[in-house]
Amino acid sequence: MYTFMIADDEKAIRESIPKVIDFEKYGFSLCATARDGEEALCKAKELQPDLVLLDIRMPGLDGIGFLEAARGCDLQHTNIVILSGYSDFTYAKKALQFGAKGYFTKPLDEDEFTDFLKELREELDKKNHIDRKDRIHMASYKLKQMYQEGNGEREGYKDFKLMHVAVLRHPPFEDVCGRIEKSLEELLKDEVELFLCKGGVYSFLCSRKALELQGIMNELLLSHVMNRLQNQGMECAILIDDNVFDRTGNTFRTDFDTHLYTMLTDLFWEKKKSLVLYSKITRQEETDCWSHLKDDVMNLREAIEQENECEALQILDTIFEKAGAKHMEYTSMVDLYYRIFYILKEFIISREDMINPLGAERWQDKPFFMTCTEMRNKCREYIVCVLHCRNEMKRKQKLGVGEKAMEYIRHNYTRQLMLKDVADALHVNPAYLGRCIQKETGLSFNSMLARFRIEKAKELLRDTDLRVYEIAEAVGYLESKHFVAKFTAVEGMAPLSYKKQFQKV
Questions:
Q1: Left, alpha or beta for 476 (phi > 0: left; psi -120 to 50: alpha)?
Q2: How far apart are CA 28 and CA 6, in angstroms?
Q3: Percent of the chain clearing pLDDT 70 (strictly above)
Q4: Which of 49, 145, 235, 462 could form a disulfide with 169 if both were Cys (CB 3.0 to 4.6 A apart)?
């Protein structure tokens, strides 16, 4: 709602104008009245109204004098409209020269004046939109500098709050940040801008006015933000920091990180859900959890070294239970997560012949925030993955040459395989490989390959509606005639006959 003031020496005029014109309908609210130019100037300086209706003829400081005085005051954003009982073009021309927005005769023509109010409202809306965007953009830019440099003056941020949107889960789409920012801009009228992004947590600088209703946090508004994001398949938590811009003895970066990680600790341990409003945040006492977990972490390392999956998972559960009982800080839990990850990496490196099934880990790059349950499950997944890979490697190492050849065929039977291809893959002589296959399976290489392909073809005939030529291609035969002949030779019937026999059963 924009504000307006009436300055006229006639009481009847001051009282009648708000009754004749429905100012509120067009977005304007009366903030003051004045009986003369001096009083009007004093109140205008204090209240900074968006519109002043000013009688041109008043005792003392008249309308023209007010316009002249306003030039030297901080009233450049105030629109001044001259009112006069005289249809005097000379007055109008002089008033416009001194910066008047318009000139109307009394009594006001309602249609003419409401048209003016509509145009002024549109002009103010457009101007304020640009001003708000410029203001929040500049404030966010300076805040980023303040964070990067470690400190800076926070006095200018009393009208702002920080909102952290922690993404807990989302579908596999890109530009998560853009979707969040668009939803916030639509509801907060552009008075919001992204400030920082860390590990699925997006921090926005917001106008305090946009977030508050009658001096209190507008929880309904924030619920609308969450509902919009949920409709897009995103589960989020919203954390509001209400006092990071208060004066403290710490650097801004220290206070920002302390406040953020204190909030994230509650969210991590699932003590808080969805919408969290923090009016005051005090740094918790550092808890020396590592003295309680040091032995458990060493035991976990030992269980992994011994390749004891069951014991390793039990120790992992114990670690998380102890950390939860101490309400271990989020940053310490991230550290714990990395310790477990690198224990597994060291285990892999120590086995030179083992392929690494784990990728790189950077929590800052994760698309969503991990709660304690998700972090524990991820650690369990890593342990199971690494130890299963180790067991699979050891199983393959125990295979004879013939069994290794069969293993290779299982994964490559759709290709045009020859004995030499398999021998090269296993780094052995083809003739030697042929003898090993014959000794271990009782079949030649070609017979073993054909037998495997026919078994796969039988599965497809039983379980799919693929045509014979499609099945032939799927199991590695270039020509369906060759496939039919080979199938008939092995099974004693054509592929279609086999399929029909199976369907009858």
A1: left
A2: 12
A3: 88
A4: 235
* Sign of CA pseudo-dihedral 504, 448, 391, 372: negative
Question: What's residue 148's pLDDT?
Answer: 87
**Gap between the Cα atoms of 210 and 379, Å rounded:** 41
Cβ-defined contacts of 137-145 (< 8 Å, 24+): 137/193, 139/193, 139/205, 140/193, 140/194, 140/195, 140/205, 143/195, 143/205, 144/195, 144/196
**264 within 8 A of 223, measured Cβ to Cβ:** no
CB 346 within 8 A of CB 338: no
Report CA torsion sign: 365, 367, 369, 372: negative
- Are the C-beta atoms of residues 235 and 274 closer than 8 Å to each other? no
- Segment of 246-255, 307-316, 459-468 carrying the highest mean pLDDT: 307-316
Count of C-beta atoms within a 10 Å radius of residue 63? 28
Instruction: Single out the residue of 106, 107, 84 nearest to residue 94, CA to CA.
Output: 84
Dihedral of CA atoms 310, 314, 317, 323 in degrees, nearest 10, equals -140
Strand pairing category for 235-241 and 160-169? antiparallel
Tell me, what's the pLDDT at 248?
67
Q: Give residue 152's pLDDT.
A: 74
**Among candidate residues 365, 369, 346, the one with its CA nearest the CA of residue 356:** 346
């030649």: which residue's tokens?
Answer: 444
Residue type, 99: G
State the CB neighbour count (10 A cutoff) for residue 190: 17
Model confidence pTM above 0.85: no
Rounded Cα distance, 364 and 199, in Å:
4
**Banded pLDDT at 505 (limits 50, 70, 90):** very low
Mean pLDDT of 118-144: 82
* Dihedral pair phi/psi, residue 245, rounded to 5°: -90, 0
Q: In this predicted model, what pLDDT tens digit does every residue of 342-398 receive, in sequence order? A: 999 898 888 766 777 777 677 666 778 888 998 999 999 999 999 988 887 776 655
